[in-house]
Amino acid sequence: MKIALINENSQAAKNEVIYKALKKVADKHGFEVVNYGMYGADSPSLTYVQNGILAATLLNSKAVDYVITGCGTGEGAMLALNSFPGVICGHVATPLDAYTFAQINDGNAISIPFALGFGWGGDLNLEYIFEKLFCEPSGQGYPRERAEPEQRNKKILDGVREIAFKPFTEILEGLDKDLVKGAFAGEKFSELFFRDCKDAKIAEVVKKLI
After folding, report:
1. Which residues on neighbouring strands pair with residue 16, listed in sequence order?
2. Beta bridge partners of 70
3. Which end of the chain is more exposed for a tag (fewer CB within 10 A), N or C?
4. Residue 84 φ/ψ, nearest 5 degrees
5. Within a 13 Å sphere around the CA of 193, how many CA atoms are in the beta-carbon half?
């Protein structure tokens, strides 16, 4: 599994702490972590809306399989990511949130409230969140006797979302160009994205936009 980490401007200073906690867990499972920044206050600024654009581009192009992101409260980033097709993002503040989201909702992104309750032990809470998020294959249901209706509801939701959204390339091309260009302005974006992108149409649109 390839996991992207994306921070927005208000929480850019925590990038290294989050990356270390995520990589520690990912390494145990043989997963790869790709850090898209922001790497600090001097990096090109990302708003939580641009987090959504970037995350959706990475997931829809299959450049990554999962996205870890967030903002001060985690709410804005979650809403931004869920505004796009191909993304199911949960709001995760605790290890229990992480486990139940993975097992019941079977999403491909989480948004963490990096400014709330992030004092002493904040790095440990992050590590425990990532441990519970990836401790088992997702979508198995919780409790297990609820697995069948939960998996059925997930398929229904996927069908609703497929009808509700336009193709992702049309969405990218219809957004404000400066907003999208800013989402792709990270120091390592081009290097990482074009190396891993598996969708030629999305890659072509991204090249035009940047």
Report:
1. none
2. 112
3. N
4. -120, 150
5. 28
Mean pLDDT of the chain: 97
Query: What tokens appear for 182 in the block?
Result: 């800013």
Cβ atoms 156, 53 nearer than 8 A: no
- Quote the pLDDT of residue 11: 95
Check: CB of residue 184 under 8 Å from CB of residue 54. Answer: yes
Place of tokens 């809470």: 125
**Which pTM value belongs to this model?**
0.96
Q: Are 93 and 125 in contact (CB under 8 A)?
A: no
In this prediction, residues 137-162 reach a mean pLDDT of: 95
In eight-state DSSP terms, residue 83 is T
Q: By CB neighbour count within 10 A (0-12 exposed, 13-18 middle, 19+ buried), where does 69 fall?
A: buried
Q: Which residues pair with 112 in a beta bridge?
A: 70
Which stretches of 134-199 are DSSP H helices?
147-164, 168-174, 177-183, 189-196
Residues 15 and 40 sit within 8 Å (Cβ to Cβ): yes
The answer to whether 182 touches 189, Cβ cutoff 8 Å, is no
Q: Is the pLDDT of residue 80 over 90?
A: yes
42-58 pLDDT, tens digit per residue, is 999 999 999 999 999 99
CA distance 29 to 23: 10
